[in-house]
Design a protein that fits this description.
The chain is about 75% helix and about 0% strand. The chain is built from 25 helices and no strands. The N and C termini lie far apart (about 90 Å).
Length: about 525
């Protein structure tokens, strides 16, 4: 736009660009450089043309400093340390060039070891590197052409990455995106000179170097795409790298294993991440999940408590909820209920809180209080706005009623499920099955096709249907076929015991009547 003389449009796009990426603050400098090298507008006219850009940039800096919730730069600035950081950058600059000329198959962000004093060898390396770059710039300045434009574009773009104001990551290849455009201009200038020389040998030498280099960089790009296309491969490589972010590689490897339900595979990355950062809320929470899955509830409770005590306040209610679940599994129902009620005061519309309160009071042998909490949850949660949450509470209330032989309450909750959630996935189909609108065979097929992750729950609802219908042969077959496996592999052994015990006692009572 600027090249075509559309200055107002250029300014409008600049304003928009500032709020997309703050490195666009440099754009007025690029425009001055472009004009000085190629257009060569008289200085007074150039200043009149570009002063709005400078004012907009200054206004943006003030906005970021004073009004934006994300701070710009450090609260205090030590000029002496800033200068020493700048003169520590010789080695990192050379490593940037190495990354351009010989990229590695996988490379993430790195830390920079800044000089501690002016006698540090890093300062000498930096002086030498700056001297070479300055010599090249002065040679290009004599002609003030494309080479000067390319080298100056590189210097301007790379300047903010020199850690004058410290930021993280300290070293990252993506800081070369814009500076490499300047280097590409230099490469174009080299090719132009080679072609202008009219020497076939010079052209042959250029392409003998350039084509294998391009093929090599292309191969490296192909290799890197392999990491970015495979999440697990990417985090495995990150975990094994020297990056200060290797920690996140272990964290995410653990999360991937947890999501695959491969808890044994999650153990090593979980413990490694915790050892690297034992005060992390997420590390402690994830380790709590691991030991909870291993039924080591006391150890899990300790990690959930540790997670709760960190500074991540937004997660604290969930950590308390998890600790309460440990108390419930340990049979310490009073302590579990006390924690759940504390969470309820913070999250009065959370279905998980009501589900755990219903289940805890039911296991505690206090079904009336369990159903009272169910009714409170149904009042607090809007079925239209939070369908799944509302349906979750209804389903838990139905199970609690069924386990205690409260058939009228069970039918009431089932009717509400059908009234509000007939079209809600999983809950609506399960309610229709419990009501007898779907056969066992059709429900099993439906679960297999649409809800494979709910297969265990679907099996238990089938047992519920057999018991409520008095189909004692099917109950006996179910208990013999699935009972031992359910007890051995259940995530909630106490609840499984209650469900299987209800079936066994109902079957015994039914057989006695027969």
């Amino acid at each position: 736009l600027y090249w075509d003389g559309l200055y107002l449009a250029t300014f409008a796009v600049y304003l928009l660009a500032l709020f997309c990426k703050e490195s666009c603050l440099l754009m007025p400098l690029y425009l001055v450089l472009l004009d000085a090298v190629f257009i060569r507008t008289p200085l007074r006219r150039l200043a009149a043309r570009l002063w709005p850009f400078a004012m907009a940039g200054a206004g943006y800096v003030l906005f970021r400093k004073l009004y934006s919730p994300v701070p710009m730069g450090p609260p205090t600035f030590d000029a002496g340390r800033a200068l020493l950081r700048l003169f520590s950058m010789g080695g990192p600059i050379l490593s940037y060039f190495r990354a351009l000329l010989s990229p590695e198959p996988f490379k993430f962000c790195e830390e920079i070891e800044f000089a501690r004093s002016w006698s540090d060898p890093a300062v000498g390396v930096t002086v030498a590197v700056f001297g070479l770059l300055a010599a090249g710039w002065l040679l290009a300045l004599r002609r003030r052409g494309a080479a000067f434009f390319g080298l100056t574009l590189f210097a301007l773009s790379f300047g903010p990455s020199l850690q004058i104001i410290p930021f993280f990551p300290q070293w990252a290849e993506h800081y070369l995106y814009i500076p490499s455009m300047g280097l590409a201009v230099l490469l174009g200038c080299l090719l132009r000179e080679v072609l202008a020389a009219g020497s076939r040998a010079a052209v042959a030498v250029f392409f003998a170097v350039y084509l294998p280099f391009t093929a090599f960089v292309g191969w490296r790009t192909f290799e890197r795409n392999g990491y970015y296309a495979d999440t697990e491969k990417y985090y495995r490589a990150l975990a094994r790298s020297e990056s200060p972010y290797a920690y996140y590689g272990y964290v995410n490897l653990a999360i991937i294993a947890i999501m695959k339900d491969s808890w044994d595979e999650a153990a090593v990355p979980l413990l490694t991440a915790h050892r690297m950062n034992p005060e992390s809320e997420s590390n402690n929470y994830n380790l709590g999940l691991y030991y909870f899955n291993k039924h080591n509830y006391e150890k899990a409770r300790g990690y959930f408590r540790k997670a709760y005590e960190t500074d991540m306040g937004e997660h604290q209610p969930l950590n308390l909820l998890a600790e309460g679940m440990c108390f419930s599994r340990l049979g310490r129902y009073a302590e579990a209920a006390e924690l759940f009620e504390r969470v309820h005061r913070v999250l009065p519309e959370a279905s998980g809180v009501y589900k755990n309160l219903i289940r805890t009071y039911e296991l505690w042998g206090r079904p009336k209080e369990a159903l009272a909490w169910a009714d409170r949850g149904l009042e607090a949660i809007d079925p239209a706005r939070a369908r799944v949450d509302h349906a979750t509470v209804l389903m838990e209330a139905f199970v609690a009623s069924y386990l205690n032989g409260l058939d009228a309450d069970a039918d009431r909750y089932l009717a509400l499920l059908l009234e509000h959630h007939r079209q809600t996935p999983w809950f609506g189909d399960t309610a229709r099955f419990l009501k007898g609108e779907i056969s066992v065979e059709a429900y099993e097929q439906l679960t297999q096709d649409k809800y494979p992750y709910n297969a265990k729950d679907a099996r238990l609802y089938a047992l519920t249907v057999y018991v409520r219908a008095g189909r004692w042969k099917e109950v006996a077959d179910f208990l013999g076929r699935y009972g031992p496996e359910l007890r051995a592999k259940s995530e909630d052994p106490l609840m499984i015991d209650r469900l299987l015990g209800r079936a066994e006692s109902a079957m015994a009572a039914g057989a006695a009547k027969t």
